[in-house]
Amino acid sequence: MASPPEYESAQPSRWEFRLLGPLEVLAGGKPVGIAGTRQRAVLALLLLDADRVVPTDRLIDRLWGEAPPPTAITSLHNGIAQLRKALGAERVETRPPGYVIHLDGADLDLGRFQDIVARAAAAATAQRSELLGEALALWRGTPLADFAFEPWAEAEILRLDELRLRALEERIGADLELGRNAEVVGELEALVAEHPLRERLRGQVMLALYRSGRQADALAEYRSARRALTDELGIEPTPTLQRLHAAILRQAAELESAPPPPVGDAVEEAARALAAGRLVLVLGAGVHASDNGRAALRPGDVAQHLARAFDYPAPDRPDLAHVAQFVAVTHGTGPLYDALHELLAAEHPLGPVHEGVVAAVAELRARGAPQPVIVTTNYDHALERALRHASEPFDRLTYIAAGRDRGKFEHTTAEGETQVVDLPNAYGAVPVGRRLVVVKVHGEVDLDREREGFVVSEDDYIGYLAQTELTNVIPVTVAAKLRRSHFLFLGYGLRDWTLRVFLQRVWPHERPSYRSWAVDPESADRDFWRHRGVDLVEADPVAYLQRLTALTRDAPGA
Fold first, then answer.
1. Residue of 281, 424, 428 lying closest to 357 (CA atoms)
2. Which DSSP string do the residues of 353-376 spell out, in sequence order?
3. Which of 205, 284, 399, 509 is the most exposed place for a label (fewest CB within 10 A)?
4. Residue range 385-437, pLDDT digits in tens
5. Closest C-alpha among 362, 450, 354 to residue 402
6. DSSP state of 31
7. CA-to-CA distance for 249 and 246, rounded, in angstroms?
8. Are 164 and 136 in contact (CB under 8 A)?
9. From CA 124, how far away is CA 265, in angstroms rounded?
10. What is the pTM of this model?
């Protein structure tokens, strides 16, 4: 059936249909409004059987139950007509004895999820973990969440939830094979609390605890599982769980896990991700450190500058958020901003990490690979200066921390044009992959003072954390990149407040969906990174970046 002329010109080149969360339809990255609960339910029912005919009788039974009104067929026809107007007449076809919705390949998130899970089943352990993480990243919450109280949706929600749990168990199983035992304990404990009768999760948390040196906790987990099963169902644990319990009691050798992968493997995996456009670099204050005596802006310099300028009462322990709060309360935000301008307006020499990042970006551009996203929690312009010196074009997204646009991001193109992002879910102007994107998640010290405001004091951080997740206020294409990428953290330490705030804004209730790394020559922060689901690589950041860039030259692209 041909599309009516008024709809043909409006058809976008890329559609996305989403069921793994609230029902969503995107066209060219922009939301498509599907009005009316009944119309949205019809679309959901068609999508659940995409590319298959759904009989009219089944649709009426699902929507109205055993006693449909006389107008049910008319209402269904009207709903189908409205869907055709929104989606295109050729997409929703009348085909006896009902209707069929036509999708192209990966248009449906549920279809993509099932395809990736199927590929993971035949993959090696490391790739299986990564693929399953990619599949699970497609979930945005409870499937069909906006139909949770509809009778027809109850069974479908249970079915889809079971698919997600199975994939999650498989991903955790792969992580355990890879020796990521301590990293998954917290996740497993939360899952067991939610699903106390699911024995595979019980077995996985027992194994992870035992391999993390917590034999007593592993045995206590078995006792908890046995109580739950006998109290709720009147049954004993399965023989599989009983055998695992017995093996832990005798400290069986077969329970030992493989050692964690060496640093070289981490660099190679990161290089492949970078070459494929799947690695986000996150830069902290440590990237300013110099290795040759130059007067670079070092970690802690901003806090120490403020402490000296305003007679901070504890100068031996200057924490930037505390010092800035002290200055704001005792002198006001005006003097605070003036002092930061005084320090950051100077052109401090760039540290070698900046040079290493720029070299990696240049290598990607030279080989025609996708350009990365670089996130920074710094307020200065050192990264931008390094990129301009190397003639590397970039777009910038800057958090606005004050004024009428507070809580939004401002997009500055490589040509210098600026636009406040009012509707992040519909804003597709950021050229992710085509050009380097720098994201300043805590704002910047605006040397021109045209838009002053950044997250620096304790009060600023409280307001910042009280807002929604970062991925809900950042442009949709960048949010997708953050959800579906590996992360490489450079220049961060355990006591870095800005890092903890960034992690809380991006992953408030979970961990990265893909394997991620923090590069630091010291190992003191290993437990902190493990708790956040990130591997600590004990290496010099500059040497690591040099190796990363060299390996990227030979890595396959996307």
1. 281
2. HHHHHHHHHHHHHHTTPPPPEEEE
3. 509
4. 899 999 999 999 999 888 888 889 999 999 999 999 999 988 989 999 999 99
5. 450
6. E
7. 5
8. yes
9. 15
10. 0.56
In our burial notation (b when 16+ CB lie closer than 10 A, e otherwise), range 372-388 reads: bbbbbbbbbbbbbebbe
> Using an 8 Å Cβ cutoff, are 452 and 464 in contact?
no
Nearest to 437 by CA among 516, 361, 330: 361
Which residue bears the tokens 């929104």?
A: 86
Measure the CA–CA gap between 361 and 187, rounded to whole angstroms.
34
Tell me the two tokens of residue 259. Answer: 């050692």
Q: How many CB atoms lie within 10 A of CB 449?
A: 9
pLDDT tens digits, 173-182: 989 988 888 8
SS percent in the chain: helix, strand, coil, step 5 = 50, 10, 40
Tokens linked to 552:
């990227």
Tell me the C-alpha distance between 395 and 321, whole Å. 28
Q: Who contacts 354 (Cβ-Cβ below 8 Å, separation ≥6)?
A: 287, 288, 382, 383, 386
Distance CA 411, CA 270 (A): 28
Residues 6 or more apart in contact with residue 385 via CB below 8 angstroms: 347, 350
CB-facing half-sphere around the CA of 384: CA atoms within 13 A: 21
